[in-house]
Amino acid sequence: MLKLPIYLDNNATTPLDPRVLEAMMPYLTEVFGNAASRNHPFGWAAEEAVDYAREQIASLIHCDPKEIIFTSGATESDNLAIKGIFEMYAQKGNHIITTTTEHKAVLDTCKHIEKLGGRVTYLPVDSEGLISLEELEAAMTPETILVTIMYGNNETGTIQSIREIAEIAHKHGALFMTDGTQAVGKIPVDVQADGIDLMAFTAHKIYGPKGVGALYVRRKNPRVKVTAQMDGGGHERGMRSGTLNVPGIVGLGKACEIAQQDMEADTKRLSTMRDRLEKELLTLEESYVNGSREQRLPHVTNISFKYVEGEGLMMGVKDLAVSSGSACTSASLEPSYVLKALGLSDDLAHSSLRFGLSRFTTDEQIDYAIGHVKEAVTKLREMSPLWEMFKDGVDLDKIEWAEH
Amino acid sequence: MLFFTVSIQRSTRHSTTFKTQYPKFNTFKMAYSDKVIDHYSNPRNVGTLDKSKKNVGTGLVGAPECGDVMRLQIEVDETTNTITDAKFKTFGCGSAIASSSLATEWLKGKSVDEALAIDNMEIVEELALPPVKIHCSVLAEDAIKSAINDYRVKNGLPALEMAKVHH
Q: Does some domain include residue B24?
């Protein structure tokens, strides 16, 4: 029996992998020591567990275990990296380059930097969601201290050309940071080969627990430092104070280890399922995939269904837990800024659904999702005056709509 | 002074089965009333009337970029001035669909004058619409008035002033 609703919102968060829970359990119970307690076995055991997690993480992203700074999640990591670099490298310059499709954790931090007197360039993206390398190059100045561009987009799954971007940043003497939240553990991310200087990521997107994440901070070529944003005991090489979340860190470590071990198989299975879902839904007329279909994460697809309204659509797919491009709970119908940045009109952005698959998604669930979405879209279109006009060959752009 | 003995349960084997218990919520019920859900799931009078007919009035209100477009049509028996049929098509949220579906139910059998008296707040009350959804009922009222105006103009009567008090 299929359990409803079906969870297909894995870009928002993933369920905890039972193997991760198993690894965490002892640190929630018997092994409760503070990793900073150097005087007794309770502390030593905790520290050992944290160090082991650092190795598991380092192995996944190809860095030195010492380059991992534990935080409460990707939002904190983004804040620490951007604010920390802005403060630490104030002597060198005050210019940061990012994109319009970043997560709010980066965009709002950049807004904050602007209030502090920094200068931020927000690069636009093309219809595929990719930035132009020429535009990036042109935006670089001697004052540019940081280029921060996300690895994989949370709404569309579009993967930026990270290596080329890093190269341009370095050529102009700037550091390169990436928000790797959606990419780490899903696709091979190699901070050495990719030329990444700082990278934010989190456990709960890769079947780990919520409330724990990390910031990778390069120690060699060049040695990067960020100014701490919290004062306290000077944990994590002085960059992030606060007692370490040992069970969470153990969970993040285990999640990374499993991700590394299962990545190839997971990617193959998920992309096959995702492609099937996508192919079936695209048999509906006037449906469009948002973002690049070549450079993207294996488990995501974002599809707009023209002539159906987003909120009505969400109500129609009540058996699925998915995200919509419409912020429909608020009175102000503000469509997704990411989809708008891709050039989508408001109505097309509103009528989009994001499907995020996970390691635990089954073929049976995908079958159900296909039928459910098709049924809802078809039903709503039969009810839609816009669909009828479209079918009658009326050009909707030429109609003078009554103001409302 | 009180002393607590804390015994930590030592389980030798942690459960690896994933016992997810989904909370027993109805995704609909969090935002919509039963009546809205009923109209959304079983909309009444979805369809199209022949707008070229003299006794058919058509109202098209809203705009795609606002997320709501309603088309409401009435067919009038010219001898009795009674609405004999009403149809709708709506592009919009569940509340917009329900408001227009309800409107068509109410319109059938009413005289044109009675139809003009339908107030959006009656729709709000009937469907228990929350404040953020009141605009859906306003749109339905506008659609009714706009359909009636279309019918009036087609039959040589002056159009009525559309009260925009709600906007």
A: no
